[in-house]
């Protein structure tokens, strides 16, 4: 009995081993921990074939080497010319099936661009780009426009999705004819300029991440070319959309690899209507377009309120001109005004500190508005200061070359002493010596009063000081005196804490050029000069760090960069960057020479 049990156990063990070996040999795929599939799907065949002529099918299919999915066809698959009834994209086995629901135009080349619209089913690897083309006529159009779209200010590719559209000469002529029939009123703007706002283009594509684009399989001819951030996805230029455009129509060129991009069996249909000379392909000359965003915001008051009794704050949508005015409706009332450096925020004080309601008229160029404001008793402001407060604008480490500033809670009308009087006691904390200096009111409020003062003291680099301004020195507009002393403790920095950048700039144009010292990322402007001829600029007392230099061709002489305006046919002001980043160290001088040349 015992012998039999041992025999049965041996047989069972043998069967188990054989079963494990069979299962191991039958198992397919990567073992656990194997390499991950990172290869995008590969197109094996299309039906009808890619590049087919006399296309009359209601659908076509694209076969892949693995199972795939269609990803966001609405945004990732582009069709030129656009179809009124959008195609339907489905999968069948390892194929993508495209059902055409629109009536196709006769003798027209259609191009489907799959811009990341197909991914493999398991890993989501993206097929970045694939084009399927067919013609309802006898030939595939073989012309192209290629180029690059960059941000006009940063000269980098835009982070947002950029759509490039092209209008054929036939579209422009048809639209111009329609406009003439409907409107006989003379216009300074060509009728075709507005086609981009009302008519869908014939051809569309999307920029790649580097800003490059290709508009392939165009008909021969010239095209109105635009690049836009099509936020509403209607393929037309909206009022508040960034745009890039060219000043002239673009001539389409021959596709240098048109035949090679199609299956050999279909190459005979490419450009059959073209002359033999068109087959002598030459290198493509790309176009360059600079995109900018012109904010067409209408002036309006965004916010108007009492900050506290007697003090108002008004914020506008557009910076106010230097001719603006803000007046009380009551002839007996008066205001003390301060406008921010950006000219979009007005701080105002009423003549009566207890004022809690007022009616005002804000006037500016082509703008007028009446404001009625009422103080709300529940309003509280964290920044509210008493009428006698004075606020130090001096840090614990003060730049040795800079001015000592103080500000006030209310505008100051006058000093209790003469500006020449030495009322500020300055103690050198190193040797305890005491000196005296004066303080001056500057930066006026309208109609009278001051909101800042300057202490007339220049300390020695590396020395710590304590400055004391005694009480009862400043009268505000309500005849209140400051009741407290202001004590400032600060250490003046040393010259060796800073570096200097000296730039010899040579410019070829007499148009004013804005030369800016900016941060490495270009988002912050530290210094700016306007130059009209070759000159040497000194950017002094800079903290150690990385800097860049930018030049702007200031064609309208307003001191700032101006974006383009499509309807005024105005390109954005040209910008160029110095070709290297400046790595400045403390106690170091850098000297650079720059031939400032703006590209067309």
User: What is the structural class?
Assistant: mainly beta
Given the structure, what is the number of helices? 4
Cα-to-Cα separation, first versus last residue: 102 Å
What fraction of the residues are assigned to beta strands by DSSP? Answer: 35-45%
Average pLDDT number: 87
Gist of the model:
By secondary structure, the protein is mainly β.
Describe the overall structure.
The protein is mainly beta and about 600 residues long. Helix content is about 10%, strand content about 40%. The strands form 11 sheets. Strands 12, 13, 15, 16 and 17 form a 5-stranded antiparallel sheet that branches. Strands 27, 29, 32, 33 and 35 form a 5-stranded antiparallel sheet that branches. Strands 28-36-34-30-31 form a 5-stranded mixed sheet, with no helix packed on it.
What are the SSEs and their pairings?
Blueprint: H1 2-26, E1 43-47, E2 59-64, E3 68-70, H2 73-76, E4 77-80, E5 88-92, E6 95-99, E7 109-114, E8 118-120, E9 126-127, E10 130-135, E11 143-151, E12 163-168, H3 169-182, H4 195-198, E13 203-206, E14 212-218, E15 222-228, E16 243-245, E17 250-251, E18 253-254, E19 287-291, E20 301-308, E21 311-316, E22 325-328, E23 335-339, E24 345-350, E25 357-364, E26 367-374, E27 390-392, E28 397-398, E29 404-415, E30 424-428, E31 434-437, E32 439-444, E33 450-455, E34 464-469, E35 474-476, E36 486-492, E37 499-507, E38 513-519, E39 525-531, E40 535-542, E41 545-553, E42 575-577, E43 582-584, E44 589-596
Parallel strand pairs: 11-19, 28-36, 37-44
Antiparallel strand pairs: 1-2, 2-6, 3-8, 4-7, 5-6, 7-10, 8-9, 11-14, 11-18, 12-13, 12-15, 15-16, 15-17, 20-21, 21-24, 22-25, 23-24, 25-26, 27-29, 29-33, 29-35, 30-31, 30-34, 32-33, 34-36, 37-40, 38-39, 38-41, 41-42, 41-43
């Amino acid at each position: 009995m015992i012998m039999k049990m041992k025999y049965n156990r041996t047989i069972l063990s043998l069967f188990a081993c054989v079963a494990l070996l069979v299962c191991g040999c039958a198992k397919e795929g990567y073992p656990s921990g194997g390499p991950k599939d990172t290869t995008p799907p590969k197109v094996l065949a299309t039906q009808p074939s890619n590049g087919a002529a006399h296309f009359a099918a209601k659908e076509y299919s694209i076969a892949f080497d693995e199972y795939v999915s269609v990803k966001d066809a609405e945004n990732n698959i582009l069709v030129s010319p656009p179809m009124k009834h959008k195609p339907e994209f489905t999968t069948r086995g390892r194929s993508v099936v495209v059902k055409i629901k629109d009536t196709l135009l006769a003798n027209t080349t259609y191009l489907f661009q799959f811009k990341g619209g197909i991914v493999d089913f398991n890993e989501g690897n993206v097929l970045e780009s694939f084009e399927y083309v067919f013609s309802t006529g006898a030939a595939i159009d073989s012309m192209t426009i290629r180029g690059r779209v960059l941000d006009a200010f940063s000269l980098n590719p835009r982070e947002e999705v950029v759509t490039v559209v092209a209008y054929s000469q036939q579209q422009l002529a048809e639209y111009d004819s329609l406009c003439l029939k409907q409107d006989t009123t003379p216009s300074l703007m060509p009728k075709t300029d507005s086609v981009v706002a009302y008519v869908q283009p014939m051809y569309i594509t999307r920029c790649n991440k580097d800003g490059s684009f290709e508009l392939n399989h165009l008909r021969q001819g010239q095209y109105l070319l635009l690049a836009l951030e099509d936020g509403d996805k209607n393929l037309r230029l909206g009022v508040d959309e960034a745009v890039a455009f060219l000043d002239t129509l673009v001539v389409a060129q021959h596709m240098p690899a048109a035949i090679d991009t199609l299956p050999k069996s279909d190459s005979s249909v490419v450009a059959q209507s073209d002359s033999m000379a068109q087959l002598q392909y030459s290198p493509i000359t790309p176009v360059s377009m600079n995109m900018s965003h012109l904010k067409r915001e209408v002036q309006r008051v965004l916010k108007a309120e009492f900050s506290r009794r007697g003090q108002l704050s008004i914020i506008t949508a557009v910076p106010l001109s230097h001719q603006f005015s803000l007046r009380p409706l009551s002839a007996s009332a008066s205001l003390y005004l301060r406008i921010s450096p950006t000219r979009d925020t007005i701080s105002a004080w009423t003549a009566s500190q207890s004022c809690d309601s007022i009616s005002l008229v804000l006037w500016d160029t082509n703008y007028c508005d009446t404001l009625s404001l009422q103080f709300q008793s529940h309003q509280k402001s964290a920044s509210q200061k008493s009428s006698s407060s004075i606020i130090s604008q001096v840090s614990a480490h003060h730049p040795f070359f800079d001015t000592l500033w103080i500000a006030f809670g209310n505008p100051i009308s006058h000093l209790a002493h003469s500006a020449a009087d030495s009322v500020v006691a300055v103690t050198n904390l190193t040797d305890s010596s005491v000196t005296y200096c004066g303080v001056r009111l500057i930066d006026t409020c309208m109609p009278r009063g001051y909101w800042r003062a300057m202490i007339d003291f220049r300390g020695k680099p590396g020395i710590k000081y304590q400055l004391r301004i005694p009480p009862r020195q400043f009268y505000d507009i309500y005849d209140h005196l400051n009741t407290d002393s202001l004590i400032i403790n600060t250490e003046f920095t040393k010259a060796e804490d800073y570096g200097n950048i000296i730039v010899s700039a040579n410019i070829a144009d007499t148009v004013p050029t804005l030369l800016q010292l900016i941060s490495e990322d270009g988002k912050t402007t530290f210094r700016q000069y306007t130059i009209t001829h070759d000159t040497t600029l000194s950017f002094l007392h800079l903290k150690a760090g990385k800097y860049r230099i930018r030049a702007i061709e200031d064609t309208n002489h307003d001191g700032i960069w101006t974006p383009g305006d499509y309807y005024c046919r105005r390109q954005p002001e040209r910008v160029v960057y110095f070709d290297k980043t400046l790595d400045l160290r403390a106690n170091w001088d850098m000297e650079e020479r720059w031939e400032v040349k703006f590209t067309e």
